[in-house]
Design brief:
- There is one protein chain.
- The chain has 250 residues and is an alpha/beta fold.
- The chain has a domain of 166 residues: Rossmann fold (3-Layer(aba) Sandwich).
- 32% of the residues lie in helices and 26% in strands.
- The strands form two sheets. A nine-stranded mixed beta sheet has the order 5-4-6-7-3-8-9-10-11. It has a two-stranded antiparallel ribbon with strand order 1-2.
- A hairpin with a 2-residue loop joins strand 10 and strand 11.
- Helix 6 packs parallel to helix 8.
- The protein is globular.
- The two termini are 35 Å apart.
């Protein structure tokens, strides 16, 4: 079964949409449209009766809702009626007594103070367990996790980090949700475990053309079980959100 993305012009590139219950990686630089893509995907499902959840690991929920409501005024009602959920799983944004203590006590006690849940950064395990609970409680069918980068760089052991992210994505597959994992795109030719573990990989590009104009583009790198267009295509922000456009020539 194909799941409509809600992005104008995108579904035609991937045989009509995403495959239900699969996990897709959406990578891009800052300002490339990752959050907009994710929320449009969730909103499209919510309007068709599929409950969606945006899992925020670094962004402030209120700002995301306000910004995305510019494209679709119905988002507020969908949130109110619990058809579209915005769930904050990131660390607290408020400084408190534990932050002050960290400046006063000796280095030997820093680790102890950081064990307070308010100060702990999210981990792949903690995020999965909370997402699993929310999926079961609300019957969530579409997921967006923003962003994978927030739980990727929590270990100094690269091998351990790779295993942890791979395991995280494998466990997400057991939830049965159609999931988009957002991540920062640093080096397009640098391959990571999430690119191999995900069923599909989409890049959002920002670059300067030969005339010195900033260009936004979308490119489907990988899409298992789907014949897909792998060329770079223009990506525009319209008054309704993202829109995939014409083929970009070299």
């Amino acid at each position: 079964m194909r799941i409509k993305s809600g992005i104008e012009g995108f579904d035609a590139l991937v045989e009509g949409g995403f495959l239900q219950g699969r996990q897709y990686l959406l990578s891009g630089s800052p300002g490339s449209g990752k959050t907009t893509f994710g929320v449009q995907f969730l909103t499209a499902g919510s309007l068709e009766g599929e409950i969606g959840a945006y899992i925020a690991l670094s962004e402030i929920i209120g700002i995301v809702v306000d910004d995305m409501s510019v494209y679709n005024p119905k988002i507020g009602d969908l949130v109110k009626n619990k058809k579209l959920l915005f769930i904050d799983l990131g660390p607290s944004i408020h400084y408190g007594e534990y932050d002050e203590m960290a400046n006063l006590i000796t280095p030997d006690y820093l680790q102890q103070s950081d064990q307070n849940p308010v100060n702990q950064a999210p981990t792949p395990f903690s995020v999965f367990k909370e997402v699993e609970k929310q999926v079961k409680q609300f019957g969530i069918k579409r997921l967006v996790i923003d962003s994978l980068s927030s739980i990727r760089f929590i270990s100094s052991d690269t091998a351990s980090e790779e295993r942890s992210i791979g395991r995280f994505i494998r466990n997400l597959k057991s939830l049965g949700c159609t999931t988009i994992l957002l991540s920062e795109l640093t080096k397009p030719d640098s391959y990571t475990i999430e690119q191999f573990a995900s069923h599909g990989v989409i890049f959002l590009h920002n670059f300067m053309d030969k005339q010195g104009n900033m260009v936004r583009a979308l490119q489907v790198i990988k899409m298992r079980g789907t014949k897909h267009d792998c060329e770079m295509r223009s990506l525009e922000f319209s008054d309704k959100g993202l829109k995939v456009g014409k083929l970009l020539k070299n």
